[in-house]
């Protein structure tokens, strides 16, 4: 059977200017939290003609981009103290060029297989479709960047390709330094909620085995309004749940049922971007995603308002005091993500800003978000048997949810 994807060549993209040799960027405690993991995204563009000129221009703009994004072109390095750092040298970014049969639209309808060993430290793949369209895949070691960084990197590359300049250059300043003598605003407590969650995550065991699968659930604007109404606490007209809390509550309950939980909900962790809480700019490059634990306990599986309130209460711990406590207590080297159900809020990524050619934006991104309206897309990864039960969950299907069987980020493009 003829391969659907044909790899043409492998190369290394380097910056167009020489860098200072030996420059080190030390990774923060939040970076080190993500050591075992990798991050990836795929951007699909519909009308890019399969020409050599298109790819050549992308490579040239990437070389210009790397002049500013020096850590992206570097390599992981252990310091004399045993700490991870990025050695900013001219090692460059690994790049693969490939072609694929059909068009982008046809590819998105296909069943896609998973290759867990495909993505390397910082890797870019450009795949041109024979009948039109381009896919840009990018991945990195999660220690180097979070989802917000990856999205900003692709957008900056697109700006460089289209405009010849970056509209939002990255900031590589460090996280807030440790406080001396504790917090100036309150009595320092060693048992803050974030610290407790990170500590308990280190002690918990991983029970999930077997093969995992991913499905994407799309919710329209009107549907999300209905979910928000169900998640509203009865008799409380002063506060309304946020969209993230309401949708997270819906899937928290549904996944708990898929896992066979008869009473209450499974314990969960929510992941939020702490840039605003730490007074960092949106262009801060590095990990600023922080985890907060939410106990399922006796929360009723059909009561969205109780689950949404528990999520909202947990995210309140992701403030300046809570995050700096976390960093100072040294829990950030724990292996966290695979320990329990995780729900990440990636609403601020803005992937649709990545326009490489005039008037041609991405038609799909692996962490796709509907712009402007309340409509949302939720991607869920679970063991295959549990995902099968989630697909037929009555509570979710009751909102006329559109279920897409495959997540394009799993493809080998």
Automatic annotation (TrEMBL):
Protein name: Uncharacterized protein
Family statement drawn from the similarity comment of this UniProt entry: Belongs to the plant acyltransferase family.
Keyword Transferase: yes
Keywords: Acyltransferase, Transferase
One Pfam family from the record: Transferase
InterPro entries in the cross-refs: CAT-like_dom_sf (IPR023213), Plant_Fungal_Acyltransferase (IPR050317)
Organism: Spirodela intermedia
Record GO terms (molecular function): acyltransferase activity, transferring groups other than amino-acyl groups
């Amino acid at each position: 059977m003829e391969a659907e994807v044909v790899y043409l060549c492998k190369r290394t993209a380097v910056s167009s200017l020489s860098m200072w040799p030996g420059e080190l960027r030390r990774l923060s405690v939040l970076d080190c939290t993500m050591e075992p993991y990798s991050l990836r995204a795929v951007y699909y563009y519909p009308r890019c003609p399969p020409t050599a000129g298109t790819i050549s221009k992308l490579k040239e703009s990437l070389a210009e981009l790397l002049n500013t994004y020096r850590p992206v072109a570097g390599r992981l390095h252990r310091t004399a103290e045993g700490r991870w750092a990025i050695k900013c040298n001219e090692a460059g970014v690994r790049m693969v060029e490939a072609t694929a049969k059909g068009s982008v639209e046809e590819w998105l309808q296909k069943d896609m297989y998973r290759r867990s060993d495909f993505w390397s430290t910082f890797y870019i793949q450009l795949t041109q479709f024979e009948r039109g369209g381009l896919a840009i895949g990018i991945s990195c070691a999660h220690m180097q960047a979070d989802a917000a960084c990856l999205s900003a990197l692709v957008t900056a590359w697109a700006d460089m390709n289209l405009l010849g300049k970056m509209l939002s250059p990255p900031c590589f300043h460090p996280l807030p330094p440790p406080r001396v003598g504790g917090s100036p605003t309150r009595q320092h407590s060693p048992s803050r909620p974030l610290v407790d969650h990170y500590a308990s995550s280190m002690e918990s065991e991983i029970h999930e085995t077997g093969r995992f699968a991913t499905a994407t659930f799309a919710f329209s604007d009107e549907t999300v309004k209905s979910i928000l109404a169900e998640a509203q606490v009865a008799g409380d007209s002063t506060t309304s749940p946020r969209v993230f809390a309401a949708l997270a509550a819906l899937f928290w309950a549904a996944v708990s049922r898929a896992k066979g939980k008869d009473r209450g909900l499974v314990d969960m962790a929510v992941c939020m971007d702490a840039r605003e809480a730490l007074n960092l700019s949106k262009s801060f490059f590095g990990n600023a995603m922080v985890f907060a634990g939410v106990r399922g306990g006796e929360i009723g599986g059909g009561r969205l308002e109780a689950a949404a309130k528990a999520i909202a209460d947990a995210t309140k711990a992701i403030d300046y005091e809570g995050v700096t406590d976390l960093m100072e207590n040294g829990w950030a080297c724990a292996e966290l993500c695979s320990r329990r159900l995780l729900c990440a809020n990636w609403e601020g990524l803005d992937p649709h800003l990545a326009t490489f050619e005039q008037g041609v934006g991405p038609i799909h991104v692996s962490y796709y978000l509907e712009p402007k309206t309340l409509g949302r897309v939720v991607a869920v990864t679970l063991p295959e048997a549990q995902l099968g039960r989630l697909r037929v969950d009555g509570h979710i299907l009751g909102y006329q949810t559109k279920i897409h069987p495959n997540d394009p980020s799993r493809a080998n493009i």
